[in-house]
Amino acid sequence: MKRKLLYTLSGSLLCSLSALANGPKPPSELKDPVALVLLTVIIGLVLVIAILGNAVVGAMDLYRERMKKEAAKLPAILVLFTLSLAASLPASATSPAPEAAAYYTPLSQSSLYLLVSIVILEIGVIISLLFVLRFLAGIKRKSRHKAAQEADPAKPRISWLEKINKTRTLDATSETEEDMGHDFDGIHELNNPTPPWWKWGFVFSICFGVVYFWRTEISHSAPNQLQELAMAEEKAAIAKAEYLKNAANNIDENNVKMLEDADDLAAGGKIFVASCAPCHGPQGQGVVGPNLTDDYWLHGGKINEVFKTIKYGVPDKGMKAWQEDFSPKQLAQLASFVKSIHGSNPPNPKEPQGAKE
């Protein structure tokens, strides 16, 4: 029986090696990284198969002793072993490999499929050998906890959290042994070490701090926190200016607000003197147009109403629409300037016109 197993294993290994040797192997394809990785995996799996094959042959001696008592199981194991090998060989040799993505490398698709098929074949052989070895040795599944309980029933169960932290649940006897002798208000300090993940995290933070200090303060290859803050503030200022620039062009009579900034009022005053003074006077006292400094308004004195009047004009009274001449921001500055000169009482004001507000 040992010879039959050796012949079977040798045949499967020879098939694998012959398929690898007979496959297309242009010299240029050996330089491809995918080919090198697959060849390395194939060689490693061949070594694993050889080791497992030797272990199976050795397990036959143990199984031979069991056969004396259970002779009926011999045909079953032979059939099982043959079927497992037969199931692994055709599956990898005849079944089409899944269509791979386009590899832009010198490795051809036929060579890639051949190497992948050999890997699948070897994995199938390894699984079969493991299954047979487990059967021959009579290994039964048993959880670690159940095995530990059978070995020492009094030993407490260790949870996965305790395993990660390397902590222990102590009974009264072992707690006395781990007592550090520090007692405060009935609380005893035990010798419970710091978890490994915490210690390694602490070591990593120290290493990170050394590297960070070297880069930011000595080699200056990276910005420190103050420099990062300055760069972030500069970037935010640019983004804010861009936002305000875009937001200024979204002003209309529905969302316009009174501008109180001196620069905005000064800009509105320049526009007023250049474009509005011929009709309303340089100080808004009124010439052809109405007085803009008193309490009377022809078309409303609220900021949105003044903005709307400037934007669309009053064609039937000779006032043009200024929306084509100025941006929404400039119209808001002009309307805010008009509101700011209310009650200034310039000399020679024109008589009131419109309704009082």
From TrEMBL:
The chain crosses the membrane at residues 37-62, 74-93, 113-136. It comes from the Bacteria. Residues 263-342 form the Cytochrome c domain. The keyword Manganese does not apply. Keywords: Heme, Iron, Membrane, Metal-binding, Signal, Transmembrane, Transmembrane helix. InterPro entries: CcoP_N (IPR032858), CcoP_N_sf (IPR038414), Cyt_c-like_dom (IPR009056), Cyt_c-like_dom_sf (IPR036909), Cytochrome_c_Oxidase_Subunit (IPR050597). PROSITE patterns: CYTC. Residues 1-21 form the signal peptide. Pfam families: Cytochrome_CBB3, FixP_N. This is C-type cytochrome. It comes from Chitinophaga qingshengii.
